TrEMBL record:
Designated name of the protein: DNA-directed DNA polymerase
Organism name: Novosphingobium album
Keywords annotated in UniProt: DNA damage, DNA repair, SOS mutagenesis, SOS response
DNA-binding in keyword set: no
Assembly, per entry: Monomer.
UmuC domain mapped to chain residues: 1-169
Keyword Cytoplasm: no
Coiled coil location: none
Role summary: Poorly processive, error-prone DNA polymerase involved in untargeted mutagenesis. Copies undamaged DNA at stalled replication forks, which arise in vivo from mismatched or misaligned primer ends. These misaligned primers can be extended by PolIV. Exhibits no 3'-5' exonuclease (proofreading) activity. May be involved in translesional synthesis, in conjunction with the beta clamp from PolIII.
InterPro entries: DNA/RNA_pol_sf, DNA_pol_Y-fam_lit_finger_sf, DNA_pol_Y-fam_little_finger, DNA_polymerase-Y, DUF4113, Rev_trsase/Diguanyl_cyclase, UmuC
EC number(s) reported in the record: 2.7.7.7
UniProt cross-references to PROSITE patterns, sorted A to Z: UMUC (PS50173)
Family: Belongs to the DNA polymerase type-Y family.
Catalyzed reaction equations: DNA(n) + a 2'-deoxyribonucleoside 5'-triphosphate = DNA(n+1) + diphosphate
Amino acid sequence: MDLSLRDRPTIVASNNDGCTVARSPEAKALGIKMGDPLHLIADKIREHGILVRSSNYTLYGDVQRRVLAATQPFARDIEVYSVDENFLDLSGFEHLDLTDHCQKLRARILQWTTIPTCVGIGPTKTLAKLANAAAKKNPLFDGVADLRDESIRRYVMERFDIADVWGIGASTARKLGELGVRTAGELRDMPMRQARGLGTVVLERLVAELNGVQADAVEVIAPPRRGMAVTRSFGRPITDREDLMGAIAQFAMRAGEKLRSHRLVAGRVTVFFHTNRFKPERPQFAANRSSGLHPMTADSLELINAARALVEHCYRDGYAYTKAGIMLEQLVAEDDRPPTLFEDAGDRARRRRLMEAVDSINGRFGRMTIVPGTQGFKRPWKVRADLKSPAWTTRIKDLPIVSAAG
């Protein structure tokens, strides 16, 4: 949304501005690789004037919402695959020129968000992903690649490296390479039984999809969650027990919010924390402990109490902790939560109303407007993000100012 970044080499850094997690085409052309630690490419950043931005998840989430709103009229159903990628079901639009249809979609998204996009069209998800990659790399497609045409599909697949095929990991790509399978086209022609023997049913389904046999329809209803986690690397190492407790309390508070937003409860909680394993010259320690939740709950205060108790059991003084997290398992729908024998229904209802009030206030006035005292307010563990873009669309003080001269 920052037009000053257009056509300039730009990278986005991970939490704590540690390494590269996204690159503009200009940055890729300069040899910046995914995962490059920023301190190792500092000279290249200065030499080429590469712009660096910290991750800004609030902004990304709002832009995603705007992209989905722009996309809605152009598809029957939408499956959100990630923050920057969606699968569209174009059933019912077949009577249109789909290439032109998708060009209009790209224009709408550009108008509403200033974000350039590419679209891949195919009879299966795998072919649509492959088409999208082709649309990005080959200017002949002008941003929209349609692989429904067999001749175009064959042209693209014969030139598409096997390692770049969606779902092919480095290990599988190596095994396929040893068999002489080095392109998407050669993988498409692999016998199904051989594919299953090499990479189980997953590779077999991938071969089927490359042949135009649909293995997965667009999932409009998300599959039920089996687990949930809130983890963070700290902005600076933590050496104090109460600072670690405060961080764990914040993570548990957030985990409860996520549970309630999905109308779920958890039956098991796990807490972990560890030192920097990439600095072996320093004292190392890692802890991981779990316990059941009885009754199952989505109450943040109950999650905090359980998580703090786990930390008490395994905390060790004398170490500098750099990352911690909380994981929730055995998730079930709130309405299916099994009651316990001595449960106080009145108290449970009051706690539910309390959590609803907290969520409402934090939703209206900003996350962490209301926090538990155990979390603290200084938050020395706060993630470092010194190069974050302004929250153009979600914070009043960050709104761009427009002026006109007479």
